[in-house]
Amino acid sequence: xxxxxxxxxxxxxxxxxxxxxxxxxxxxxxxxxxxxxxxxxxxxxxxxxxxxxxxxxxxxxxxxxxxxxxxxxxxxxxxxxxxxxxxxxxxxxxxxxxxxxxxxxxxxxxxxxxxxxxxxxxxxxxxxxxxxxxxxxxxxxxxxxxxxxxxxxxxxxxxxxxxxxxxxxxxxxxxxxxxxxxxxxxxxxxxxxxxxxxxxxxxxxxxxxxxxxxxxxxxxxxxxxxxxxxxxxxxxxxxxxxxxxxxxxxxxxxxxxxxxxxxxxxxxxxxxxxxxxxxxxxxxxxxxxxxxxxxxxxxxxxxxxxxxxxxxxxxxxxxxxxxxxxxxxxxxxxxxxxxxxxxxxxxxxxxxxxxxxxxxxxxxxxxxxxxxxxxxxxxxxxxxxxxxxxxxxxxxxxxxxxxxxxxxxxxxxxxxxxxxxxxxxxxxxxxxxxxxxxxxxxxxxxxxxxxxxxxxxxxxxxxxxxxxxxxxxxxxxxxxxxxxxxxxxxxxxxxxxxxxxxxxxxxxxxxxxxxxxxxxxxxxxxxxxxxxxxxxxxxxxxxxxxxxxxxxxxxxxxxxxxxxxxxxxxxxxx
Length: 574
Fold this sequence. Notes:
The model has no long low-confidence stretch (mean pLDDT 95). The protein is α/β, with parallel strands linked by helices and 574 residues long. The longest helix has 24 residues, at 192-215. Helix 19 links the parallel strand 18 and strand 19. Helix content is 36%, strand content 18%.
């Protein structure tokens, strides 16, 4: 049966057809939908793990038990999971283990633009790279065969365009796969004596995988001319085919680690001009040059941002097809926190007190943009607390009374706890604000260990943040409602003045959650409004100025009343 599918949905279908029994992931755009789609199959146990490291270790445990397993994350998530990945390369697997990493060239929703092919090379594990939804499904099934044939975890590299584009796939039946677990201390206990013996096995496996890369049909030559030859993979293959058609021969790589040396040499020998078209780093090009082959690519193509047909066409001096432009200039629409976002009131209070705010990864990062312009640092998941600790240790009294860390509830569970443990253990006088909106908001409302529900929405274990913080050694823990500006202001003032570490939990569910009941939208009494724009200081998209008066958009307003607390004339009401 054929069906039009997103790349992520097709990959999840591949998990189902491969007989996968266990899926553990942490949500991260553009990978999130893979696990959400897999959870729709009752035959597959699926879960959101607290972070990617835990997810990968759990998937490894399922593989060890003899069941095909999967772990998914975005590119920066693989940084978190790198520790088990590198050692899993040594241990190998029992049942097949496949890892998906979704890169985000163009940084549509990421803080960096790293190229995950480097991880496959460094960890010495095979990496497959589909170029459309059909390949996402088929490569997933193939990855499990490779995993078990070569006793290795296998990485599938997705990217934003493949993950979120649709194409036709051919659906198949589910396979049934189970293996038994056998105790094997030399293989699975990676203390130095055993690990030393496993490393030669990894090197020998790499040689076998290199031989496999030469013959696998997912690496193929599409020969049409000897004038131009292009080596490419993933979505770049689609762009190359659209730009060049039959005017260039193509070596299409579905397996990007290890690379097929002999196939590359043979292809290069048949064309007069050889190029590599690849996004971000010159991984393939550097390998080709190391083989002693003259090749171009990085010298004519950009090494930043994602490619397009026009970028490739322009780089090769070909005709660029202009799109249809509107006559009117469309104003830019910067990202903004939603109307009724619970973080808005808290950030306003922080700005009012002129706090130094070290932030984290989440939708609350938008606290860095005008008019709030509050957050001064965003590095990686969980970094806000560690950075605040170091900041305060160095500046002492100069910063302790005005510096805070802000971190979401999901991010705190992901990697914030260890930072807070460091604050408690090494006693920096730091204030941490946990922005508890009762969901993992930025990636589309996934559950986490603080919500009390699992990936299917069923009741699950729930971690009490207050008790957790107390148990970690923080004596001062208090909860505030971010819709109450006076309460927020008092809490920030008192905790920053306290002579010991403290935690403020700003608790209010995300305004976009379906089960959250809102108050009626507010209205502005034009006779009372003096046009002072005090209400505009919070940057709520439901409020605008027209004819010198504040106006509320009733279709957006959720009646949070934060704006009414700022109005000196009490012009806001229901």
